[in-house]
Structures are given as structure tokens and as C-alpha cells.
Design goal:
Layout lengths: L8 H9 L10 H16 L3 E7 L5 H9 L4 E5 L3 H10 L5 E4 L2 E2 L4 E6 L9 E5 L6 E4 L1 H8 L4 E8 L5 H4 L5 H4 L3 E4 L13 H8 L3 E6 L2 E6 L4
Parallel strand pairs: 1-2, 1-8, 2-3, 4-7, 8-9
Antiparallel strand pairs: 5-6, 5-7, 9-11, 10-11
Pfam family, one: Methyltransf_21
Keywords: Methyltransferase, Transferase
Protein name: FkbM family methyltransferase
Length: 224
């Protein structure tokens, strides 16, 4: 993979490939069910849809392409420099790259650098804003990718506190998504309550809630 030496890029790559942060095979209590779900859809010639929210330089998209070779992947990254590497690293793969941010509402987002490196850039939706990275909702992406042969499978969310906005409204997509992998950022943004909308959203849903390698995992209890 292409990366920037001396930046946060090597650590991002190591987290994904060496530490297995997003490897569902590390969840033995539900792993067999997930494999069975994928197999049933494969028999119907249906491909899993994976949304990579916070695509960074493409490490997670490449990892998911290797783990799920038939998957259709949509990777969203708001920063222009990260996005350039995302496109380069996913060239030749079935990955749709979007230079934008995920949000609860359409609009535009402002990208800011809090000094944490390329992996810590934040995108915040600006109400009424006309400039900046475009915002995409998950409902919108699901509608655009739905062609009868693609089914929602997994959403990975690592958006540096942007989960506070993403799970604030228009969360119909959550009930349609068997697996959600999310990194919460209350530790990074203390007292901001960025995890609260996510916790409220899933609290009343019939889902398991697991934790692994700093990743919170939400899995539908009915995988049929």
C-alpha cells in the first residue's frame, strides 16, 4: 500500500492488518452465523455491501476486499490528501470512493485538523454551508447501491467524533445492517457526549453489543 512515512499512516495499516481490528472471525460467539448469512446470499448470487465511513488511505477497504472478495464497498473520506491515497490504494478493486463525509443530513462538512495526524482529521457538518466536503447519508448510499443483487451487510464507522451527528437522525439504515463496527471517541473528546446518540440509537434494537480492540461491534440478533 502507498503511505506517507513518518505520518500516522503506518499505524493505521498495522491496526487493520496486524491487529485485526475489523476481522469478524475474532468473534467466535457470532462468527459462524455471519459466515452462514454470507453463504446464503452467495447462493442467490447476491453480493454484500460494505460501507467504510472514514476511509482514510484505504487500508480498511483493501482489508475488506481481501476478506470478502465478492463485496461491493463504498469508502467515504473527507480529506483531500487522504482521499488521493484512498483512490490509489483501492485501484482495481470494486470500491466506490467518495470524497466527502457521512452525516445524518445532506449538506457540506468542514474538515479540521486538531493536530492528531492524518488519521485524526475531523469533518463537521455545517448547517447551511455551501463549501466543503459533501455530506452523504447512509440511507442515501443504500438507495444508490440497491440494485437487487447487493444487500446491506456491514458498516464500519471511524469518523473522529462525527458519530454524534451520524446517529442523531435518519437512522433507518441501522435496522437494515447486520453488522456495525464503530470506534467511539468519548476518550478523545471528553464530556462532549459524542457516543450518546449511537448508544441511544441501538438501545431499543434487537442487537448484540460486543467490544474488541477498541472497536464496538453491533450485530443483529436475527440474521435471516
Amino acid at each position: 500500500m502507498s503511505y506517507r512515512p513518518g505520518s500516522s499512516d503506518p499505524n493505521v495499516i498495522a491496526e487493520v492488518f496486524r491487529r485485526g481490528a475489523y476481522n469478524l472471525r475474532d468473534y467466535p460467539s457470532r462468527g459462524a452465523e455471519i459466515v452462514s448469512l454470507l453463504s446464503r446470499h452467495a447462493l442467490l448470487d447476491e453480493r454484500p455491501l460494505i460501507v467504510d465511513a472514514g476511509g482514510n488511505i484505504g487500508a480498511t477497504a483493501v482489508f475488506f476486499s481481501m476478506l470478502y472478495p465478492t463485496a461491493r464497498i463504498v469508502s467515504i473520506e473527507p480529506d483531500a490528501q487522504n482521499f488521493e491515497l484512498l483512490v490509489k490504494n483501492t485501484e482495481g478493486l470494486d470500491v466506490r470512493c467518495l470524497n466527502g463525509a457521512v452525516s445524518s443530513e445532506p449538506g457540506n462538512a468542514k474538515v479540521t485538523d486538531p493536530g492528531l495526524g492524518f488519521s485524526g482529521l475531523r469533518a463537521e457538518r455545517v448547517v447551511g454551508g455551501q463549501l466543503g466536503a459533501p455530506c452523504y447519508t447512509l440511507n442515501q448510499i443504500y438507495a444508490e447501491e440497491s440494485d437487487g443483487k447487493v444487500w446491506p451487510f456491514l458498516v464500519k464507522v471511524d469518523i473522529e467524533g462525527g458519530e454524534a451527528d451520524l446517529f442523531q437522525a435518519n437512522t433507518e439504515w441501522v435496522a437494515q445492517t447486520p453488522v456495525i463496527l464503530i470506534e467511539l471517541h468519548d476518550g478523545l473528546l471528553p464530556k462532549a457526549g459524542t457516543a450518546r446518540p449511537f448508544l441511544r440509537c441501538i438501545a431499543d434494537q434487537d442487537r448484540d453489543f460486543l467490544s474488541h480492540n477498541d472497536i464496538c461491534v453491533s450485530i443483529l440478533n436475527r440474521l435471516d
